[in-house]
Design a protein that fits this description.
Blueprint (H helix, E strand, L loop, with lengths): L1 H5 L9 H8 L6 E10 L2 E10 L2 E3 L12 E3 L2 E12 L2 E8 L33 E8 L2
Antiparallel strand pairs: 1-2, 2-5, 3-4, 5-6, 6-7
Length: 138
């Protein structure tokens, strides 16, 4: 042990914030339930996803974790409808159609109000995304 200490190998290599990213910075659970229904030329799909809670550690000093924040679990819902006509298919859909957002970051962690949501959110922080798509198969 003395050799390690004299060589500086007993120093902290990974700080508290980085340890938090590894240990609690991502949800421990993710649950997905999806379905596809097809009839004639139509197909409809739905996927509900639940992301578990996660924690972001901010303060580098272990004795003052005042900026640490735990974000609640959240559900999102994706829907799509596709119509096939010969070699063409036409789709409309939406990701996160219920417009779910993660919890807002506390003021000190939001760059003083400039970025209200954590960049660590597993499903983003842009809300609903709607789309239309056209495809051709040959």
């Amino acid at each position: 042990m003395a050799e390690l200490t004299s060589g500086g190998l007993n120093q902290l290599r990974i700080g508290r914030v980085e340890q938090g990213r590894i240990e609690v910075g991502a949800p421990r659970s993710k649950f997905m339930l999806g379905g596809l229904w097809t009839t004639g030329n139509w197909s409809l799909s739905a996927t509900a996803t639940r992301y578990g809670e996660f924690t972001v550690l901010f303060d580098a000093v272990e004795t003052t974790p005042t900026r640490d924040q735990t974000f609640c679990a959240e559900w999102t819902l994706d829907l799509a409808a596709t119509y096939e006509m010969g070699q063409w298919d036409f789709s409309i859909g939406g990701d996160n159609v219920l417009d779910a957002y993660p919890d807002e970051a506390i003021y000190q962690n939001s760059t003083f109000g400039q970025l209200p949501y954590s960049a660590s959110s597993p499903f983003g922080f842009n809300g609903r995304f709607m789309y239309a798509r056209m495809g051709y198969r040959w």
